[in-house]
Structures are given as structure tokens and as C-alpha cells.
Amino acid sequence: MSIMTLKRPEPTYRQTASASDQGTTFSRTRVTAARQQINIEPIGIQQTTDQLLTAALLQATSVVRDGTRDLGVDRAGTLVARIAELLDPAEWEEGDEILKVGSVRTLVRTLIALEHDVGGIALTRAGNLAVSWSGDDGKLRVEALPDGKVSWALICRAGDVIDARHQSSDTIANLRSICES
């Protein structure tokens, strides 16, 4: 977060003439505030990528900790460890978005709703967490969006029949009902 200062320019005045009994007088009136410009200049601190990644990890840890009662200690610990691996500064690619805390909240809610282990986890270029599970009968990939919704893709196999479905910006409850069917 950078520190901002406000600098107000000197007020601008205009002269107006008014007629009176005793001759012409001039008064000074301020030009309306809508016409004044306020200059905002950032000063001070620009955070490094390492600092941003550390801050994101602290926020993610806090969100996971809040969900630990419903997640369970083991799943919560696994999730924090995997997020820490994703936010390793040595592995970070410049240009990627930093992890969005809303995405962590959505993932925690998704894991609770699906009652599943953490699975494979990744960070999208947009800063969202994605988790995937695979087994002999299919694959599920879920991207946790910061607005509390999920995007998902599901591939199911039953013998020689393959059923593939996907949905963008769906609710967690709808995803759970699809996984149960």
C-alpha cells in the first residue's frame, strides 16, 4: 500500500464587477471546487514481489485458519503448505497476479462442501486457486473465483462412455449436487 498526500492548488479567483450607488466595486469570488484540481502524488513505499507474496501467504493462512474447524486440522495444514509452495518467490513468474484472498475463501468453502481432500493445487495467472482430483472413473478441476463462485470441468468415465461437463461462474452448492450425482 502506498502513502498518498493531497496537495491543494492555490485557490483561483475571478473578478466580478458589480454596480452600486457609489460606483463600481470589484469583489473576489472563488472558482467552484469542481473546477479546481487536486493533485494526488504517491510517495514512499513500493512493495517488492517478495513482500507481496509474503503478505498474500499471511492473508491465505488467516483465511484457512478461520475454516480449520470445518476443514479439519490435517486438510487445513496441507492447504497452507501447498499455498506456501505456490507463493515461493524463487519460483514466481513476473507478470502473474498475486493470490487473491477471495479465491482462498472460495476454495476453503468448496473443500468443506465437497468433503474432499485438498487434491492437486495450482495458481492461475489471474491469481485464483485451482484444485483438481483424478481417479479411475474421472477428473474434476475447480477454479475458486474471488466472488465466491467456482468454474469447473468434470470428466466421468463409465466403461467406454465418457461424459464431459463444464460450467463457468457456478455456485458451490450446484457443484456439490453435480458431484453427488
Characterize this entry briefly.
This protein has 181 residues and is α+β, with helices and mostly antiparallel strands. 33% of the residues lie in helices and 35% in strands. Helix 1 runs antiparallel to helix 3 (73-86).
Describe the fold and architecture:
This protein is an alpha+beta fold and 181 residues long. The chain folds into two domains: 3-43, no CATH class; 49-180, no CATH class. The chain is 33% helix and 35% strand. It is built from five helices and nine strands; from the N terminus they run E-E-E-E-H-H-H-H-E-E-E-E-E-H. The protein has helices at 49-66, 68-71, 73-86, 101-114, 172-180, and strands spanning 3-7, 13-20, 23-30, 39-43, 120-123, 129-135, 138-144, 150-158, 161-170. It has a five-stranded antiparallel sheet with strand order 5-6-7-8-9. It has a two-stranded antiparallel ribbon with strand order 1-4. Strands 2-3 form a two-stranded antiparallel ribbon. Helix 1 (49-66) runs antiparallel to helix 3 (73-86), helix 1 runs parallel beside helix 4 and helix 4 (101-114) runs parallel beside helix 5. It is globular and about 55 Å long. The model is unreliable at 1-43 (pLDDT under 50).
